[in-house]
Design brief:
The chain has about 140 residues and is an alpha+beta fold. It has 3 helices and 6 strands; from the N terminus they run H-E-E-E-E-H-E-E-H. The strands form 3 sheets. A two-stranded antiparallel sheet has the order 1-4. Strands 2-3 form a two-stranded antiparallel ribbon. It is flat, with a radius of gyration of 27 Å.
Length: about 140
């Protein structure tokens, strides 16, 4: 009886251990990974529908942010609005700039899809309106 109980204990332990191992996110082996972030918690708020970008390490994060800054024209200094001809340090960090560019990209994709859908709907409506007033052949 004790051997059977011990075997059951070992089996349950292995199942639990396997569940814990499977539930752990896989490590990022490339520069970054885009993952299903459903359930991600940020500052105490849980987001049930999310996509996250996970970086391998701080150096990877910094490299991607620097690449965005380079490719999208981030300027470390900007014209000083108070003093013509003078410059000031850009109050927007490269990380904020990168996040704004990602947001801008997603917004552009969403907008383009909305315009496509509206165009298709308007075309269908116009075609139906014409069919209603123009006799068939």
């Amino acid at each position: 009886m004790k051997l059977k109980t011990f075997r059951s204990f070992i089996l349950v332990s292995l199942i639990c251990l396997t569940s814990i191992i499977i539930a752990q996110p896989s490590p990022v082996v490339k520069l970054f990974d885009v993952r299903n972030g459903n359930g991600v918690v940020d500052s105490g708020t849980t987001y049930p529908f999310a996509i996250t970008i996970v970086f391998k390490d701080k150096a990877s994060h910094d490299a991607v942010v620097a690449a965005f800054a380079s490719q999208y024209g981030y300027q470390a200094t900007i014209p000083d609005p108070a003093n013509a001809g003078q410059t000031i340090a850009n109050p927007q960090s490269t990380k904020q700039f990168t996040m704004a560019k990602i947001t801008q990209y997603l917004k552009g994709i969403y907008r383009a899809d909305a315009v496509t859908a509206a165009t298709k709907s308007a075309g269908t409506t116009a075609s139906s309106a014409v069919d209603a007033v123009v006799p068939p052949q």
